[in-house]
Amino acid sequence: MIVLLKNQPKETELQNLIDWFRGMGLDVHVSRGSEHMLLGLIGDTSRIDIDLIQALEIVESVKRIQEPYKNANRKFHPNDSVFDVGAGNPIGGGHFQLIAGPCSVESEEQICAIARAVKASGATMLRGGAFKPRTSPYAFQGLREEGIRLLLAAKAETGLPIVTELMDISQLPLFADVDVIQVGARSMQNFEMLKELGHTDKPILLKRGLSNTLQELLMSAEYIMAGGNERVILCERGIRTFEPQTRNTLDLSAVPMLKELSHLPVVVDPSHATGIWRLVRPMALAAAAAGTDGIMVEVHNDPPHALCDGPQSITPENFDGLAKEVAAVRAAIGLGVGA
Ligand code: PEP
Ligand code: MN
């Protein structure tokens, strides 16, 4: 971090500032020019509040050289993070997870039939919403507690680990047997929830917010990691742009970019990214080619009658083709097949 000071700073204020930085364990390199004076801060500056320094009387401007996230930063953790997401399935470092299931859990027959079908096609995890974040308060809100119970029944039957969304920290006790907790796009910056999840021992699938930058996504991951939970999976699920033809715009460059910036595994959700079932398969293949560590897709046995997100849900038959093609793409680029 570089701090540019105003002309002729008062010596006592300058010394106080330098002492304060040193007190935070930083080395301070003072460079006095004829016009200006610079302080170069060396060390971990991720805990420094840049706005606070900016507001000081003697400071002209501040520039960060290093990213404001440390735990999620590849610079401090050069190797890919690899961790278990349930049933001994690893993600990251070349290990791939194919996550499939309905937008929302609707009944025991529905979730179990879909779980059996996607498992037979090669899915390694089951998704399904029990608590649903809906734009309209009048839309189906999910089966809630009962939805979690049904997901656990599908897990018991198929052995597939489950991932489902937590919308409020008060729901956490219901998630005791859930393998991976999803933080939805709308909750990505619910910082109090992220802090609490930092104290859990569950992997977290953190979805990118509708209009959030990659740095903001990494800062949200940092919230969880700062609390001690290092098992965060980043999920690109499309962002809002000016294009109305698709529900969102899939930012596939997020995959290699996030992998450059961070050691955390990255998953792509082509269903919410496009909103159109026909686009899910090609975008899943593109995500595989981009080197994603997992793909999460919505699969429904009767999309026209789905209670949520039918237009973007693919059938189990279509998913079967997707799974084969994703495996072929991964093999073609030397990433291997399966989990
Ligand atoms: C979901 O995956 O069920 C979901 C609601 O997605 P998002 O938070 O990305 O909109
Ligand atoms: Mn959905």
Describe the structure.
This protein is an alpha/beta fold. The protein is 32% helix and 17% strand. It is built from ten helices and 14 strands. The chain has helices spanning 11-23, 50-54, 108-120, 145-158, 191-197, 214-226, 254-261, 270-274, 277-289, 316-332, and strands at residues 2-5, 27-32, 37-42, 59-63, 83-84, 90-91, 97-101, 125-127, 162-165, 180-183, 204-207, 232-236, 266-268, 294-298. The strands form three sheets. The protein has an eight-stranded parallel barrel with strand order 7-8-9-10-11-12-13-14, surrounded by five helices. Helix 5 (191-197) links the parallel strand 10 and strand 11. Helix 3 (108-120) packs parallel to helix 4, helix 5 (191-197) packs across helix 6 and helix 9 packs parallel to helix 10. The longest helix is centred in the last third of the chain and has 17 residues, at 316-332. The two termini are 41 Å apart. It binds phosphoenolpyruvate and manganese (II) ion. Residues 103, 129, 133, 165, 184-186, 207, 237, 272 line the site of phosphoenolpyruvate (PEP).
Short description:
The protein is α/β, with parallel strands linked by helices and about 350 residues long. The protein has helices at about 10-25, 50-55, 110-120, 145-160, 190-195, 215-225, 255-260, 270-275, 275-290, 315-330, and strands at about 1-5, 25-30, 35-40, 60-65, 85, 90, 95-100, 125, 160-165, 180-185, 205, 230-235, 265-270, 295-300.
